[in-house]
Amino acid sequence: MGRILAIDYGTKRTGFAVTDPMKIIASSLETVQTNVAMQFIKDYLVKEEVDQFVIGLPVGLDGLETDNTKPTKSFAKKLQQNFPNIPLAYIDERFTSKMAEQSMLASGMKKKDRRVKGNVDKISATIILQSYMDQQSF
Predict the structure, then answer these.
(1) What Enzyme Commission number does this protein have (predicted)?
(2) Which candidate, 8, 14, 91, 111, has a CA 20 to 30 Å from the CA of 42?
């Protein structure tokens, strides 16, 4: 059984989260600079089986595309070209960064750790993944 790999794509940093092989638990994985995100995925796929990609799609409060939607879709297209046998799903990522910040605060994470932008990105990816899992029935 493979995992689901969630991606919180950003123009500077990209956060990743992954399920366990049974697809029960979503866990944060890593945050990398976006210019090496594709290589990170390639390296990860050498070690782990992935059944699906889930990408957070940036949309505004009105449900329309934002400035970040086009780069995210472009990355998703490259992902599909590189890994055509792994299905890809989008999920609305509105409010995930805010939810990640609230989660870090509620968990008692120290202020200096909450200021690390990479922590927000990988926790956002985890929220994206959990949202996707909540909508599915495995």
Answers:
(1) 3.1.-.-
(2) 91
- The CATH number covering residue 61 comes to 3.30.420.140
The residue behind tokens 């505004």 is: 60
pLDDT value at position 49? Answer: 96
**Domain limits at 38?**
3-135
Enclosing H/E stretch for 72: helix 69-82
For 85, the 3-state DSSP assignment is coil
The answer to whether 96 and 56 have CB atoms below 8 angstroms apart is yes
- The count of structural domains within the chain is 1
> Highest mean pLDDT: which of 68-72, 76-80, 90-94, 115-119?
76-80
CA 49 to chain centre: 17
Alpha carbon distance 24, 47 (integer Å) = 20
Phi then psi for residue 5, to 5 deg, are -105, 120
Residues 138 and 122: their CA atoms lie apart, in Å, by: 23
